[in-house]
Amino acid sequence: MPLQYGLLRDEWQPLGINQRTIKEIINNLVEKKINPNRLSDREKVFIDYVSDLLIPQNNQFSISVCDEFRENGGIIVIDPISMYHPKIKELLQRSQLLAYDTIISIIVTFPFYPKAYEIERLLEQYIYKSALEIPFKHFEDFSEAYLGEFGVGSIYSLRRRVYEAIIRMRDRNFVPSKAQKEAALEGRREDRGIGSRIFGAAVEGRKPTRKKIARELQSSNIVRVKVSIAVVAMTQEEAEQLDTGKVFGEHGEDTEDFRQFQQLKKALGIEQLALQYGLSRDEWQPLGIKQRTIKEIIQNLVEEKINPNRRPDEKKLFIDYVSNLLIPQNNEFSISTCDEFRNYGGIIVIDPISMYHPKIKDLLQRSQLLGWDDVISIIVTFPFYPKAYEIERLLEEYIYKSVLAIPFKHFEDCSETCLSEFGVGSIHSLRHRIHKAILRIRDRNFVPSQAQIKAAFEGMGENKGIGSRAVGGK
Predict the structure, then answer these.
(1) Domain ranges of the chain
(2) SS3 sequence, the chain?
(3) Mind listing the pLDDT tens digit for each residue in 430-456?
């Protein structure tokens, strides 16, 4: 294990020995994705690495660095294994920054596989850049319109991504009450954050015309709060077929496709693949044998986090599981289900191991839903450790609920103001979380030019989406 760490804290190699350091991963993001896509030189980002000031060798952390974090925000990336070191744990607690998770992005990784880099390379080559090419390109390009996530590698991260996707779909298809319609017509602000598709103008402070809102309300034919979810995962029978190679034909074990699958299986250290799958697609157990199914994980979120916290005038949300309509046993998927996904959005949760099964890969591609990733949340997990549940239980007991108790509670409560992330378990997910955090801090502290200030006062639109805190423009 010591080989994953360097002389400095920023030299930690989260992906394993002889891989990129955390500093190289962050610098690569800034130099290749963030700065080349900036709107002006004023938005150019540089990273101030203060790891050895916050957690110094001499035990005396910098008070001025802590003050700067509280005032301007920042990002703290935490390796949970390092939190077992008493000195590191104590210094982080003494900094008193963990309670500021509404302005500081606290990103806690999940311990990576010893062969994480090899697994990601195999998935990228055989699945991400072929069967899932369109959503993966949008994800890698950090498209603002993209709604999904690749490489979700822990139960915490999976729950969070599914929760966000459900809330997004619920609010997109929200049907307002009579009182809310009246509020919109009067230009009031009570509806902020809900029904934005209908009330966008009202919540932004503009007074919409009666004709425009009436047209919007009339065109909405949704009568209940439903979110469609399809789980793209094998059944137990299909997993057994894949395991033997029979699914690739009479001499399937000699094909290149089967060799690719065997490579992944060897890197993962999985022996009995079929035990993670059930009679239906929704019975897939992402955390391993004898753990909760994906359907139980989703239902738990709805029943414990989403429905109990709904507003009094909001209807209960329910999940319509359409996995066996999208990826049916008889190879004939439901066209009406695909149309509903395109019209109203939905969530597709994909097990990448199942994508090695040719029938599943073919049906998902034939559905033609992968190009609709600005309407559909496509969540691709990263294969979980064989002992993922045990590892998460140990981390939760010793680290998450003790030294990281405040941000972990906010994260688990799915607080809208919490910027923390727990259980980031793959390089793709890590890059995405850090990218979002950097942009959030950049836009929060953006200082507009004189021309931009003037444009804002004149009611022009140059400042849309950037520097709104400083400029005050919409």
Answers:
(1) 2-72+74-113+390-444, 116-171+225-384, 174-221
(2) CHHHCCCCHHHCCCCCCCCCCHHHHHHHHHHHHHHHHCCCHHHCCCCCCCHHHHCCCCCCCCHHHHHHHHHHCEEEEECCCHHHCHHHHHHHHHCCCCCCCCCEEEEEECCCCCCHHHHHHHHHHHHHCCCCHHHHHHHHCCCCCCCCEEEECCHHHHHHHHHHHHHHHHHHCCCCCHHHHHHHHCCCCCCCCCCHHHHHHHHCCCCCCHHHHHHHHHHCCCCCCEEEEEEECCCHHHHHHHHHCHHHCCCHHHCHHHHHHHHHHHHHCCCCHHHHCCCCHHHCCCCCCCCCCHHHHHHHHHHHHHHHHCCCCCCCCEEEECHHHHCCCCCCCCHHHHHHHHHHCEEEEECCCHHHCHHHHHHHHHCCCCCCCCCEEEEEECCCCCCHHHHHHHHHHHHHCCCCHHHHHHHHCCCCCCCCEEEECCHHHHHHHHHHHHHHHHHHCCCCCHHHHHHHHCCCCCCCCCCHHHHCCC
(3) 999 999 999 888 888 765 556 655 666
